[in-house]
Structure formats: C-alpha cells, structure tokens
Amino acid sequence: MSTKEQRRQKKLAKKRSKEIVKRKELARERNSLQSLAGQMKAASAGPLDQCLMSAGLFQPDTKFGSVFISRRMRDGRVAIVKILVDGLCLGVKNVAAFVCYPADQNQILEDMSQSELMQEVPLAKARKFVEGAIAFAEQFKFDPHADYRKVEVMWGDTDPNECSEAFAFGDHEGKPRFVNGPYDSLVLQQQIREKLQTHAGEGNYSIVVMMDPVDSASGGDWSDGPELDADIDEDVIDGRAVPRIR
After folding, report:
1. Helical residues (DSSP H) of 120-222, grouped into ranges
2. Fewer Cβ in 10 A, N or C end of the chain?
3. Which residue stretches belong to region Disordered (predicted)?
C-alpha cells in the first residue's frame, strides 16, 4: 500500500471514529430522556415558565402547601415539578414531576386553584423556602421525599440568596409541630412521633391529629396519578398523559 493510500485510510478511520463517538453521544442523550429524571435534567437548562407557591405556606399556623415549577422544553412541551412542603415539621413531604403540553399545564393549574390559592413568586424565593424547610426538618432526622433529589435540578443555577426574605419554620416558638394528613398511615404517624421524641425531646414538639388515615386500598394520595407511583428514574410518561394533581 502506498504512503498516499495509507494516509487516506488513516483519515477515513479517524472520521469513522468521530462518527461512532457522535452516535454514542446521541444514543446516551436519547436514553437519558427515556426517564423523567433525565427529562428534568434536560429541562433545567430551558427558560423558566412559571414558579408558584401556595398562600398556605406563608400562614403561620399551617406553613403547608405546594410549590409549582415549570420550564419550557425545546420540543414545545413543559417540564413540571410540584413539591408538597410541610414547613411545620417534615420539610418536603411529597414530589410529583412530569412532562406535558402547555394546554395541559393550564388545566392542571386550574385544578390546583380549586384547593390552593397559588401566587407567582421569584424562583429564588421558592428555592430558599423549600431548602429552608428541608434544613429545619433534617434537624429531627426527617429527610426530604426521595424523589426530591432527582428533580432539584429544576432550580437550575438560581441562587436562593438573591431572596432577602427570612422564613421561620416550626410553630411560633420554632418547635416542630406534626399535623397528620389523610394519607399518613398510623404506622407513619408512630414513626414520626418516635423521631420527634428522640431528636426534639419531650416538651419540644407537638402533634395534632386532624383526621383518620384513608385506607390505602380505597384511595390515591396527594399526587393521585398512577404514573407517579413508580420511581422517577424508571418512569416514562407520554406527553399527553397528564396526571391529576391536587
């Protein structure tokens, strides 16, 4: 083989190698978008669409409600994260995340308005509040809902310190107060009681029983969508399959 032909073969091999690397990168990107966690990561680079917080989060006797974040994706859809926050005790209690179309998002927000008064806030304020609630709960060994770590990329590079407001958590004395919800089983309530007794100490917490737990076999939960029952890393949701959230 001539020297000229050898050079030509080397160039062809180098070109093929680059094409293989590019195909692998595209394949990895497609695979990552098959999981909702991957979709959230991709969406985190997109422009913010809406950031809303429930008015209940700012009521000193409840400090309970939803944080709603959506970002626009390149294909015209929106990625949505809804975080249920308990600022009195548990921090991030639940997380729902999915991808849908703008018209579907409007319907979701309309449904939410039936149970919560949502108000638009800067993303920095929402992040500061959520992370403050997490830090408060972690003092008593309450970790945020497992799916939170998978969707927190939706904050993007927003600096919570851009928000100058100060938020207080716990009751009026800064002590944790657990108020049970309809989907908090008796077993869960007992576990929470034991953690508060161990990590807050007698007299340094309170428990308010508002309602009996709903039979898990007869109803859904806060997210109320079968698509959201699976682990987010394994969840693949069609863009038109919009879960009902409340």
Report:
1. 123-138, 148-151, 186-199
2. N
3. 1-24
